[in-house]
Every structure is written in C-alpha cells, then in structure tokens.
C-alpha cells in the first residue's frame, strides 16, 4: 500500500480496508434510516411507534456494520489499496461474491433513499394543499431534497464507476482529472444549499 510515496504495513492496510468497507455500509444504512425518519415524521402513524421503528432500524444498522466488519476481517476477505484513493476487493472467491452483491445493493439502496425523499416532498405538497400552516416546513424539506438529490447523483456516479466502470480511459490521468472536476463542481453546487437555515 502506498500513500504519498510511502509504504505502509500490511496490518495497517487490512485495518484501513476493513474500516473503509464497513463504514461505507454504515453510511448507507444510516442514510436509509434518516430517510425513513423523515418519512415517518409526516406519516399518520403514532409518534411513539415511529420512535420504536427508528430505534430498531438504528440498531439494525449498527449490527450490520458489526457483521460487515467481522466478515471483512476474515482471512482472504477485505479490501486492498490499489492506486491513489482506489480500494479494491481481494481476488479470492469470497470477496468476489461480496463485490457482486455490493454492485447491486449499493445502487438499489441509493435509489430507495432518493425515492423516500421524493415521497416526503410529495406528502408535504399534499399537506400544503390542504392547509397553510406548513409552508416553512415545505421550504426546509425542499432544501433537504435538493441536498439529497445532489448527494444521490454524486454517490450513484461514484458507485457506478466503482463497479461497472463505464468510462474507459486509455490513460488513467484523464480519469482522475474527470473525477476531480466532477467533485469540485458538486462541492460548488452544495455550497449554495444551506439546510440548517430557517426559511
């Protein structure tokens, strides 16, 4: 493993690879829990039941994180550091199976998260049409939706590049240049979206 022209220990690479993979799954599952929480806020279900549902989903997310951490720590599993900021699964059968499963789980999870945010905005529009008391909340939720859409586009693009690599450059320098340009443009776009600001 080489970072900044220095060679790091094999054990450190194993630990970092496990952390990268397990934290990615934790991020995805917590993003899904957050989206479900947004949906339940505007649902007619009992608020106490909402709390139990969210706590249950949070516990499942952390258990999933622990499971992925254990599986990725097994001999033969895990990620290896290939080139600048690119982590790849090892070449054994187990990691290959995980790679195949993840190539479908990641995009599907991102699509479900975006669909939930769209449902939240649709529900808020229905509430707004029936009464006038939720206009501030609708503006705030629209800002959250814009942030979710930008996040979805960025993450979906990176997941697609990681698993199916539709862009084939003969020289990898251009590939990294394109990734950096896309990342800087998305960061510029997100600077204009202030989710914490009240309407």
Automatic annotation (TrEMBL):
The chain crosses the membrane at residues 24-41, 53-84, 104-121, 142-164. It comes from the Eukaryota. Keywords: Membrane, Transmembrane, Transmembrane helix. This is Uncharacterized protein. It comes from Steinernema carpocapsae (Entomopathogenic nematode).
């Amino acid at each position: 493993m080489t970072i900044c022209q220095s060679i790091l220990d094999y054990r450190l690479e194993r630990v970092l690879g496990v952390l990268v993979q397990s934290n990615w799954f934790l991020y995805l599952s917590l993003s899904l829990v957050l989206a479900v929480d947004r949906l339940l806020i505007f649902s007619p279900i009992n608020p106490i039941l909402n709390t139990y549902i969210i706590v249950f989903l949070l516990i499942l997310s952390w258990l999933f994180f622990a499971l992925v951490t254990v599986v990725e720590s097994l001999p033969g599993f895990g990620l290896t550091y290939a080139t600048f900021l690119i982590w790849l699964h090892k070449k054994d059968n187990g990691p290959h199976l995980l790679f195949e499963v993840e190539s479908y789980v990641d995009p599907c999870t991102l699509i479900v998260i975006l669909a939930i945010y769209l449902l939240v905005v649709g529900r808020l529009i229905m509430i707004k049409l029936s009464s006038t008391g939720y206009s501030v909340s609708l503006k705030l939720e629209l800002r959250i939706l814009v942030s979710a859409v930008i996040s979805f586009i960025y993450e979906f693009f990176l997941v697609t590049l990681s698993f199916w690599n539709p862009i084939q450059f003969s020289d990898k320098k251009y590939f990294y240049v394109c990734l950096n340009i896309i990342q800087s443009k998305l960061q510029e776009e997100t600077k204009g979206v202030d989710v914490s600001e009240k309407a």
